[in-house]
Amino acid sequence: WDNPPSYDSVINNKEYISKKYSKLFKEKSDNWGMKEPRTSTILFAISNLISDSMIIYCTRDYDSVSKSLWIRNGMSMEKSRELKDKYDTAVEIFLTENNKKAIVINYNSLINKPDVVVDEIINTSQMIVSEKLRLSAIGVVRTKDSLRKTKVKLLRTEILTSLRLVIKKPHRLFSLSTIKIIASWIRQIRNV
Prior knowledge:
Layout: H1 7-12, H2 14-26, E1 55-59, H3 62-73, H4 77-97, E2 102-106, H5 107-112, H6 114-125, H7 131-140, H8 144-168, H9 176-191
Parallel strand pairs: 1-2
Helix pairs in contact: 3-4, 3-9, 6-7
């Protein structure tokens, strides 16, 4: 999704997209959420499914988005800024054209002080939430340290799996795909 669909493409495929998400939404009950940045590009196609939904719009600054996309796949800062703008613009146009309000939260605030942000969401939405559910919501948020530990574990697994493959087929060591993977590992290692 580094090249998200255009508004026209989403509108032209609205029925298909709506049908696919309708099935997913029907499986859900009560309070639930979805953290999927790519959804922001198809909000127009699923607007009929989320007409009564509360939208929590999580924003992230350009630098952290650029760093994340560079680590993930070596994307340039310029390209990552363009991509972020496309996603943000899609959400903002959807909210404006559908006269929808969103609770806007900042990603860094969320991972640094999840309890404060969860309380802000609860208070702004005027939801009545038990303390058990509140604590559960706070527990879902991954802190910076937790995210780092998960990244290290996944990176270690990926490296070991790839090394096993290269040992079995040494000729792959100098292939272009292997060199790209190693470059990706280096970016990720520098980050963790």
